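Researcher: We're teaching a course module on how sequence relates to structure. For the next exercise, students receive a sequence and then see the predicted structure as tokens, so they can try to spot secondary structure elements on their own. Here is the exercise chain.
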Amino acid sequence: MDDAIRFIAQSHPAFPARLREIAKIPDGIYVRGGAPVEMLGRDMIAIVGTRRATPDGNRIAEHFGRELARAGLGIVSGLALGIDAAAHEGAVEARGFSVAVLANGVDRIYPNTNARLGERILQSGGMIISEYPPGEPVYKYRFLERNRIVSGLARGVLIVEAPESSGSLATASFALEQNRDVFVVPGSISHPNFRGANQLIRQGAELVTKPEDILEAYNLERRPKHAAENYRGSSEETLILQALAKAGRPLDVDKISLMTKLEPRIVNRAITFLILNRAVIESEGGYILETSF
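Model: And here is the predicted structure for the students to work with:
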């Protein structure tokens, strides 16, 4: 895994265009992870909510993160406990593109309890970014500053469980200022975790109850049974896809090499591109074709 840290200045061509549209544009961003910086320009959905989420809230955030990532949307959040972490978990599970925006330097994952999740985001081809240089500590006021970047990178923001004092309401406010869409999962009128979220719906945010609601808003469709069916890649990648389809079960690199008669180093390189293009996923038993949900 490429764990290098890069600085992308505001003047750099690869600096995300969406961040040029926000108030208080950062001078630059520090990017940790091996994926091309240009990936930050793809369509993404921010998923945010309370740190003290209910089990149902975590399940809902993970479900949306997983299904929207499978549909091809990037998932951006703040790697906080609760809803943020659940959304990232869903995206990682789907082998989707996930971006964690920190309120401190990218050399240290905060909170520490999400350090392993941060590593998994990087391993799955995602990124950890921040406007603060490596070594910068966490200060409370920076979480609010961070939220403008979370919403700024996204095409829309999904709120899952937001009490009246939730920082995710600030993210929704930033989103509206930035002309981003705001989606909200409704909840019980008697539960304090939903008071802020329900108020957003009353103020005009779009109510959603399933990932398809967001996909429909963006004219996106679910993937075919096998994402590989419409994939067009190199001859080596095609051979690997055919081998996986024929096997009908997970295969490791050695077995793929034996079936395709390709050298292991060629297989490894091709598999990397197939994973990045979400035609293949890695399971405990090896590599398999990615199927729809």
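Model: If you want an answer key for the exercise: The domain at 227-289 is CATH 1.10.10.10 (Arc Repressor Mutant, subunit A). The chain has two domains: 5-217, 227-289.
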